[in-house]
Amino acid sequence: MAKWVTCLLAALFAGLLLSGCAETANQEVSGIAENLDTDLNNIEKVTVITADGLEIPIRLDQFNSDFSIKGKNLQTADKPLQKDEVAYTVVLHRKNEAPLVVEVGKQASQFADQTYRGVGAEKLYGWIHGIVGKTLLQNEVKEIVVNADDLTRSLRLNDQETADVMRLLANSESVDQLEIPQFPLYPGYRLRLDFAETALEAKILTPTLLYFEAGSDQHYLRVDSELFSKLTEWIPLTGGSGDEFAPLYKTTELQISPGSDPEVKAAKYKMADSTFEQGLSHQLVRLLKQAKPATEIPLPDKANFSLVFVVNGEKQAVDFYTDAFVFAGKTYADQGIAAKTRALFAEIARQKQ
Fold it and tell me: May I ask which residue range the UniProt record assigns to the signal sequence (predicted)?
């Protein structure tokens, strides 16, 4: 009986399987489909607990919607799931019975004393991860504040604006982890969503990509570009702090000129090539803005390297030294600024390989 329950629960959770969960891995399981509907009728509530202890109620109809998907390669494994591997604890509350608990990690899941690894276990994590991401942003919200970090501006949304945002978030789609990193595009829109029991901050990375963290997990959601359009209406792209670095956000080309640092090679990058290049150039500007003006810093005769930002056809150079840089005739100090900057534009070179 215990083995049958173990097999059944694994089948339910993977949303997935007709293989695995037998005395030998990969052996086909029979008798699961016949009992699936009956067991579902006993589940009255599903909750997911994140690694940092946040308990998230999951709509039962949403949870059940993928149970008909049949995956493969859910395999039993001898190595148990370690506590630091657990991303989610899924609790199925049953009528008049003790709840069933499954611990889910990125590459393995565990029920009772049985661990499952392989492709099926990874699919299970991806499925739960997607449900959690969407559910977190579909709870009843008390307040939404929009921030445009690069403009140092914020706006508390009214009821209608809040409803518009939640409508668009409800129609979002979870996406896998990004193969190429994406920094937020100017002006760095960020949503703070206050719910009854928690708060989330979601960064708008591109007009169609949103990012937030929950516990130890990172969530990316594909959203309609209407959300970005509304944000530009509420906090326009113009205006803001007006500091000397602000024009660099409009760069269309980034040129790298070697200096005394032998690891830096000459290169040119067009910002229109992709949102990756655009976001990285905007992140470079943010890095520059963190530095403090300095007047009495001795600098070597030769810079480590230089970056040239091409803005409206005009070149604006930034000369980098180990812990300082010179821009528009002024010196700014920031410990390790050359290494931080080099690491950023080296990311472009890696993605171009």
Answer: 1-24
The pair of structure tokens assigned to 166 is 């939640």
Answer yes or no: are the C-beta atoms of 333 and 292 closer than 8 Å: yes
φ, ψ of residue 324 in degrees (nearest 5): -160, 165
SS3 25: coil
pLDDT tens digits, residue range 109-161? 888 788 888 888 888 888 888 888 888 888 889 999 999 999 999 999 999 99
Q: List Cβ neighbours of 229 (8 Å cut-off, separation of 6 or more).
A: 207
Residues 324-351: tens digit of each pLDDT: 999 999 999 999 999 999 998 887 777 7
CA-nearest of 118, 122, 125, 73 to 104 is 125
CA nearest to 112, candidates 123, 99, 124, 121: 99
Residue 108 host element (H or E):
strand 108-111
| Interatomic CA distance for residues 28 and 144, integer angstroms | 50
Domains along the sequence of the chain with CATH: 2-136 (3.30.1490), 141-234 (3.30.1490.410), 246-352 (3.30.1490)
Cβ neighbours of 259 (radius 10 Å): 16
- State the DSSP code for 201: E
Distance CA 337, CA 74 (A): 47
Residue 68's φ and ψ, nearest 5 degrees, are -80, -10
